[in-house]
Write a structure and sequence with these properties.
single chain, mainly alpha, rod-shaped
Length: 260
């Protein structure tokens, strides 16, 4: 193979990689928007429930995704500029940014997966106590609001069963005014409707609110884990393309220097 044909083939390969990196950057931006959107969606949608969780892993995973999504937007712009200018220093910076974001999103995905595995156990251990000890207590307004919304949104009553409320600090207090469950357990909320716990009046769901909340959080964690790990794999592919492009530019510079 002549030197001219070899140079021509390397030039075509460089151009091909350049356009592949442009396509990757577009997918990178789309993936970054997805990561950012999922992180915000996780914190905003029914965010009241987060105060009922004993662990902060769920929230941390969402914040990591938001951080990674923001970095993707900035890094994607840097990547486009680096590819257009074909500067090895800019491309090297872009390459290390990709690896950093890859690690961040991988951590978010792994955290979500690990928390998903122990979600059921955590809820069973802590939700009943959280509801029984903190509902309608001074300084626990956020938990009270979260429990009321949980029971209304998921049409459930009590952590495992409506009878769980009988052992709560709220029902035992004068504040309850002879209620046996909070009013938020009622199918139709009226003042003091919680005095009557008949199935025609309150929600009686098998497994209680634990089952409903567990399914809700599990669905979110699956999305967090899937998006985090999926986009991380996309970025790893981009890092490989970028490394190949840097290598080709390096070879071209060496060849140009050799001809001088």
């Amino acid at each position: 193979m002549t030197a001219a044909r070899k140079d021509d083939r390397e030039d075509r390969l460089t151009v091909c990689l350049k356009y592949l990196l442009f396509v990757f950057n577009f997918l990178f931006w789309v993936g970054g928007a997805a990561v950012l959107g999922v992180g915000i969606w996780t914190l905003v949608e029914k965010s009241d429930y987060l105060s009922l969780l004993a662990s902060s892993t769920f929230v941390v995973s969402a914040y990591i995704l938001i951080l990674a999504g923001g970095l993707v937007v900035v890094t994607g712009f840097l990547g486009c500029c680096a590819v257009i200018r074909e500067q090895r220093s800019c491309l090297s910076t872009y390459f290390f940014c990709l690896l950093l974001i890859f690690l961040i999103e991988l951590v978010a995905g792994v955290l979500a997966y690990v928390y998903y595995q122990r979600l059921s156990e955590e809820l069973k251990q802590n939700l009943n106590q959280t509801m029984a000890d903190n509902y309608a207590q001074p300084g626990r307004e956020a938990i009270t609001l979260a429990v009321d919304r949980l029971q209304q949104d998921f049409k459930c009553c009590g952590s495992n069963h409506s009878h769980d409320w009988m052992a709560s600090a709220y029902v035992s207090s004068k504040q309850a005014e002879d209620r046996v469950v909070p009013d938020s357990c009622c199918k139709t909320i009226t003042p003091r409707c919680g005095r009557r716990d008949h199935p025609s009046n309150i929600y009686k769901v098998e497994g209680g609110c634990i089952t409903k909340l567990e399914q809700f959080l599990a669905d979110h964690l699956l999305v967090i884990g899937s998006v985090g790990i999926g986009v991380a794999c996309l970025q790893l592919a981009g890092a490989v393309l970028t490394a190949c492009f840097i290598y080709l530019l390096y070879k071209e510079e060496e060849d140009d220097f050799g001809t001088l």
